[in-house]
Every structure is written in C-alpha cells, then in structure tokens.
C-alpha cells in the first residue's frame, strides 16, 4: 500500500480517516465483533481533537479493559479490580491540569468497584468515567454480572438469570441521583447513529472535566458476541431488542447543558 502524503489517498482523493495519534500502531486482540476497539478509537480521536495527548492519564482494571495500555499512546495506569476511581481521585487531585479518565467494564465498576464509583460521584471528583456495559464478565469466562438481564444465559446461570439472583443494576440512573455528578448518560455501539452519539458524549464528559465541572460518566452498551454465543450481527440485534428496553439510552443528568452545545 502506498504511503499517504499531504492528507491524500491514492488517486488524489482526500483522506478522511486514519489511526489517531493517541492509538499505537498495533493490531487489536479483541474478539470479533467486540465493541472495545471502536470505543478505543473514539476515545483516542477525542483526545487528539482536544490536543491533550501529552496530558492524559487513563486508568484500567482487570477484565477486557486491561489491554488498554497496549493500545493507547499515552499514560495508562493499571489498578486492582474495581479500584480505578480511587486511584484516579488521587492522581487528579495531585495533577489537576491532566485529563484523567477511567475505563471500566460492568463486572469491575458495578460489582467489585461499586463503593469506589458511588463515593467518587458523591464527592464530585473532577474526572471522567467510560463505563462499558456488555452484561457479562467478558474476560473471565462469561459469568453473570450485575448488569446481566433477567433470563439471560451465562456460564454461571446456564438456565438464565432469575430474580432470586437479583436484577440488573442501572448504574446511570442510580448515579444521576447523586448530587455530586454533573453529566451522566447512556449510549450504545449497536448502530452508526448511536456510535456517533457515543463519541459526542465522551467529548462532552472530557470537556466538562477540563472546565472543572466535576464528575461525569458515559455508559456505553457494547456487544460481546463470544460470551453471548452469537454472531457479531446477531449481537447487535440482541442489544436493540433485549438490552435497550432494560437499559434505555439517553442523558440522565446534565447540569450544564445550556452552556455546552
């Protein structure tokens, strides 16, 4: 393949996309149809657009999120399972001029790290959270997670989750009731329209932080075809038909909506 020069593709066509500077030139190792790769690109593009690559610090825990340090071309700190909000709190307070974000799955944020995320929100800590909700423990074998739907089959509830094992936690709705939060929304990677909305929400969360507006969380519904035992195409339909009725998309809180268009 010919090397592109001056933002031109072969034949003189204008180059309209490419690898963001905030992503390393390495192949992704995520499963086919997984949403993490797309979400990584959106985060990296946003950081480039904000010209913050040299001042960004990300935090990733155990789970599929652990691969973040292999892909992002800026500082990533690995933390114990569920603890990114606690460590992010310390770093943001020590280095307030940095763009600080946590990148967490549902097994991490909504289970082991529930206390950390709730109290970081209650304190109104000035960092951003990217919450990836695929309704399962992706890396460790597809076990039931706090966000698993009633009736959904996993390796630890092969007949489907029943109400005796609880109901799915709606993190965005819960955190929106906390006074210390400034921006809480839920997006999805099931369609072009919703992926565009996801990137816009990430950018708003980062802008709020840079302007000192406090705690923001963007929940992203993401496909996990491997642990849902589906094809990538089937997983997108399942998200729309099954996940979204339980986890409706939208903005649940936006303290400064009138100031940010």
How would you describe what is shown here?
The chain has 261 residues and is an alpha/beta fold. It has a single domain (32-255), classed as Rossmann fold (3-Layer(aba) Sandwich). 34% of the residues lie in helices and 16% in strands. It is built from nine helices and seven strands. It has a seven-stranded mixed β-sheet with strand order 2-1-3-4-6-5-7, sandwiched between helices. Helix 2 (68-71) links the parallel strand 1 and strand 2. It is globular and about 50 Å long. Residues 1-6 have low confidence and may be disordered.
What is the CATH third-level topology name? Rossmann fold
| Class from helix and strand fractions | alpha/beta
The value of Rg in angstroms is: 18 Å
Count the helices. How many? Answer: 9
Query: Which word captures the global form?
Result: globular
- End-to-end Cα distance: 40 Å
Tell me the fraction of residues in β-strands, as a range: 15-25%
Low-pLDDT segments: 1-6
Q: Assign the CATH architecture.
A: 3-Layer(aba) Sandwich
The helix/strand order is HEHEHEHHEHEHEHHE
Mean pLDDT: 90
Query: Can you summarize the main beta sheet?
Result: 7 strands, mixed
What's the total count of β strands?
7
Total count of domains: 1
Largest beta sheet: what is the strand line-up? 2-1-3-4-6-5-7
Task: Indicate the CATH class.
Answer: Alpha Beta
Per CATH, the superfamily is Thiamin diphosphate (ThDP)-binding fold, Pyr/PP domains
Indicate the percent of residues in helices: 25-40%
């Amino acid at each position: 393949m010919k090397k592109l020069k001056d933002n031109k593709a072969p034949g003189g066509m204008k180059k309209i996309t490419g690898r963001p500077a905030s992503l390393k030139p390495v192949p992704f190792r995520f499963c086919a149809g997984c949403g993490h790769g797309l979400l990584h690109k959106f985060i990296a593009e946003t950081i480039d657009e904000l010209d913050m690559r040299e001042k960004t610090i990300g935090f990733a825990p155990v789970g599929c999120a652990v691969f973040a340090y292999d892909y992002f071309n800026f500082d990533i700190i690995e933390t114990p399972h569920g603890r990114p909000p606690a460590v992010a709190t310390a770093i943001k307070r020590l280095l307030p001029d940095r763009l600080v974000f946590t990148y967490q799955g549902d097994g991490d944020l909504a289970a082991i790290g529930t206390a950390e995320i709730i109290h970081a929100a209650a304190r109104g800590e000035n960092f951003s959270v990217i919450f990836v909700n695929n309704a399962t423990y992706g890396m460790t074998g597809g076990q039931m997670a706090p966000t698993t739907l009633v009736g959904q089959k996993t390796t630890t509830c092969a007949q489907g989750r029943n109400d005796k094992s609880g109901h799915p936690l709606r993190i965005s709705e819960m955190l929106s009731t906390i006074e210390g939060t400034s921006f809480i929304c839920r997006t999805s990677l099931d369609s072009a329209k919703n992926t565009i909305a996801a990137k816009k929400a990430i950018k708003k969360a980062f802008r709020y932080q840079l302007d000192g507006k406090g705690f923001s969380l963007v929940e992203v519904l993401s496909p996990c075809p491997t642990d849902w035992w589906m094809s990538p195409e089937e997983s997108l339909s399942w998200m729309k038909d099954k996940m979204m009725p339980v986890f409706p998309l939208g903005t649940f809180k936006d303290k400064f909506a009138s100031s940010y268009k």
